[in-house]
Amino acid sequence: MSAYDRRDLGLLLLRLGAGGVLAAHGTQKLFGWFGGHGIEGTGQFMESVGYRPGKASATAAGLAETGGGTLLALGLATPAAGAAAAGAMAGAATVHAPNGFFNQEGGYEYAATLGLAATGLAIAGPGRLSLDHALGHVVDRGWMVPAALAATAAVTALVVGARIKRLDRAEREEQAELFDEQEALFGE
After folding, report:
1. Which of 79, 106, 129, 176 could join 144 in a cystine, given CB atoms 3.0 to 4.6 angstroms apart?
2. What is the pLDDT of residues 1-36, one digit of tens each?
3. Are 140 and 77 in contact (CB under 8 A)?
4. How far apart are CA 152 and CA 122, in angstroms?
5. Among 153, 161, 147, 15, which Cα is nearest to 87's?
6. What are the two backbone dihedrals, phi and then psi, of residue 170, each rounded to the nearest 5 degrees?
7. Taking the model in full, what pTM does it have?
């Protein structure tokens, strides 16, 4: 048995850190743990920011974060786990993007960092200190990386695109109502 190198230890630490944070973040959505709002509260929030239906969106995001994060921490099915977590973080980043980059201003810094870490792990692999390695990489094949990332990118683009269309439509309707109110008020 060969000694583990710095890369294996570094990947283990990155997997445990990013995966643990993602899993905890997801359990806030799913179960209300760690001060979260559970499916009901998260579903209401998802509706308010344009992800509909809210409960289904909260469930999908919670499962991607909890499942993806747990699998990343374990180093199991790393391509799929990293892609799922990255997709969830891309969806979160779009909500925060109007606030700029930095988290202190409500920006997308946090979501982008977790998403990039998850993507990096999907690409780099879990290292030898992982369940993937112990199981002979049966769910961590080279072809799985582009497949998982491409599938997740396609689904994320559809979900985020639908959200953007809903928000644009709501804004146009609001503008039309304001115009109608002004027209009625000023009799033009």
Report:
1. 79
2. 456 799 999 999 999 999 999 999 999 999 999 999
3. yes
4. 12
5. 153
6. -65, -40
7. 0.89
Helix (H) or strand (E) holding 30: helix 6-31
- SS3 readout for 56-94: HHHHHHHHHHHHHHHHHHHCCCHHHHHHHHHHHHHHHHH
Q: Which residues contact 172 (CB under 8 A, 6 or more apart)?
A: none
Identity of the amino acid at 87: G
Alpha carbon distance 63, 23 (integer Å): 9
Angle at CA of residue 80, ends 75 and 81, nearest 5° = 50
The DSSP-derived string for 125-174 is ---SSSHHHHTTTTT--TTHHHHHHHHHHHHHHHHHHHHHHHHHHHHHHH
